[in-house]
Design brief:
2 copies of one chain form a homodimer. Chain A is an alpha/beta fold. Chain A folds into 3 domains: about 100 residues, Rossmann fold (3-Layer(aba) Sandwich), CATH 3.40.50.720; about 150 residues, Dihydrodipicolinate Reductase, domain 2 (2-Layer Sandwich); about 80 residues, ACT domain (Alpha-Beta Plaits, 2-Layer Sandwich), CATH 3.30.70. Chain A is built from 14 helices and 15 strands. In chain A, the strands form 3 sheets. The first copy, chain A, has a 6-stranded mixed sheet with strand order 7-9-8-6-10-11. The radius of gyration of chain A is 24 Å and the shape is elongated. Chains A and B meet through helix 1, helix 2, helix 6, strand 11 and helix 12 of A and helix 1, helix 2, helix 6, strand 11 and helix 12 of B. Strand 11 of chain A pairs antiparallel with strand 11 of chain B.
Amino acid sequence: MTEPLRIGLAGLGTVGAGVARLLAANADLIAARAGREVRVVAVSARDRAKDRGVDLAGLAWEADPVALASRADVDLFVEAMGGESGPAKAATEAALARGAHVVTANKALLAHHEAAVAGGIPCVKALGEGLAGNRVARVMGVLNGTCNYILTRMEAEGLAYAEVLADAQRLGYAEADPSFDVGGTDAAHKLALLAALAFGTRVDFDGVMTEGIDKLSLADIAHAAELGFRIKLLGVARMQGEALEQRMRPCLVPAASPFGKLEGVTNMVVVEGDAVGRIVMEGPGAGGGPTASAIVADMIDIARGAHSPAFGVPAALLRAAPRAESGAPAAYYIRLALADRPGALGRVAAALGAVGVSIHRMVQSADEAEGGEATVLIVTHETTRERLDSALAVVAASDVSMGAPVAIRIEPV
Amino acid sequence: MTEPLRIGLAGLGTVGAGVARLLAANADLIAARAGREVRVVAVSARDRAKDRGVDLAGLAWEADPVALASRADVDLFVEAMGGESGPAKAATEAALARGAHVVTANKALLAHHEAAVAGGIPCVKALGEGLAGNRVARVMGVLNGTCNYILTRMEAEGLAYAEVLADAQRLGYAEADPSFDVGGTDAAHKLALLAALAFGTRVDFDGVMTEGIDKLSLADIAHAAELGFRIKLLGVARMQGEALEQRMRPCLVPAASPFGKLEGVTNMVVVEGDAVGRIVMEGPGAGGGPTASAIVADMIDIARGAHSPAFGVPAALLRAAPRAESGAPAAYYIRLALADRPGALGRVAAALGAVGVSIHRMVQSADEAEGGEATVLIVTHETTRERLDSALAVVAASDVSMGAPVAIRIEPV
């Protein structure tokens, strides 16, 4: 056995305390796999007195995380504070500046500043190493447990978004301010990291076309189910020639597909490689235990000197890819509120036909023809969003339209 | 860029030719991720003249794979010949003896001889590295595509085993001699490797309690479905204290579980770690592309000097675990053919009760009470196989029994 790998741990919240507890609980097997002891030597957190179920006896205490990151006896600095600027960034930079290793599961920090080492969901190692021989055609993911929990319950119980959100907040599955989750930002951060791993491109968080689940209507979730689909907040990244397409938006997926069968807070990543075919990975997307598991795995790699570049290739070799102007063509789900009178459907068909959008399936929803208004559901053949929007603008402006048309992409998965 | 990593490739069948094609097709991204060129310099195969869609121009040819493995200009020897002894073993040993790297996806060779580097399904890296901080409670897998294809079709189409097997052979999903697959041996090899990775124990292929799918009856598949289960050839490995339990046998799993939803030739691995929770991985289990993908990923790790020990810890540190004497307690599915007369069910209940096996659910199958014989299905509460067998022996010896009882474990997944 060589010298221990000495850890400086900044942050003792859910993630940080989870790391400390995991290192203590599995010290024997971690030492065997790392080839040496992995030992926390110094910590930093807001409140020294708080009981976190972690034994701090014998550990050095630093009130300032930058001071912790700068300690000569810290070989590896673990940033478990969170936040995309301020102390987390300053301390990470201090550690990197003196050549120390850094591990963080802080997606916000990674996406904005490209820190040196990525942690997090188990697919990172699969993409960066296990599938490194593959040219990836597409990487997709349901990457936010809160959103998938809300959508699952809306569909299963027929409850409105606001009602399920309030319940999720009571149960601790959603934050008091849920916008980072339900607005799609958290999931978009993760997608940007996966895209960099998959395609060797620079992390481009701002290039993710992002739309949350907060404006989804229960009606569309129910109608999608009638048609054999489910609605998921689905991230998709693919190359369009030299351009990188990144989307994190509600999509319809076939109910029988892996994404369609995904329930609750679980996350899922699907990678399509030219050699391996389709790989599906599913697991807990968040929480102290899973995140600590990912961080400790990185520590073990570093301890045995077998760590790979965070994004599969050295950061300097990541290409700056231009952003794709729009998503690849796809089929779309459309919901229209039309005047319930002869000729209304014909007007819609004509508007779609005029721009070359052809109809795969059209259903007049039986139970909603009331007050002279009919709900019409359409599944199109493959088209572009731009064509579709131009046709829907014509429909919306016509006298048969009784409400704003809804269009949601059907991702072929 | 440093010097190229020079590959000696032994075997140009499905796997070997797949490796050569993948290295050629993705040379640019492989070099970027490996930090240097990965170049085949010499090959060996049975027939030099055969067209395999691989350009052999400029490559050295060795008729003898041992000579290939011994070449001074080969940094990494890839064994893609197959077989657990003979040339594959001799050549691998020759390469290891002179300190060259070896990559092989030959499960038979690995399971029997513990070669230095493991390739194969994408879960190897997840278990050995990505989840290295976890104490694994249980690792499970559907690991043979041929078996899962046959079981899926038997259930979906109500066809008998022999009929589906013949079809699978016509379609190329099963070998002319299918015993290595349908007898469970191939899947047991893979389970033994996963167990070594998960628990840090020596590979113990002979310690896997193995039973194939060739004796499964269509009736049990259908009855299991009626009860909300599906039958899978499921591998399970777990520690019972210091002892290692390894089983590769047909099991009932809930139809709504990930294994229950797995269709066709796809493989699935589930890992339960103390920190991460449950991780599910799904992908193609065999074929030239997926296997080549795994081999090239190992090559890239070796090229960048970031390869980990094949089994998570150095082979010398793997513990020789004693074999568990039997499986952990579980619920069981029982099918009985009983005389259709008063008191028959009471005799069964008494025999089970006498050894402490309690009944969770009992169903007399309605459509089969003919000729004075009734089919009775029982789901027990948790018990041991030994207790159950002693009770079933009493039932079988009684005058109400009209045929041998069937008992299949229900694995809680």
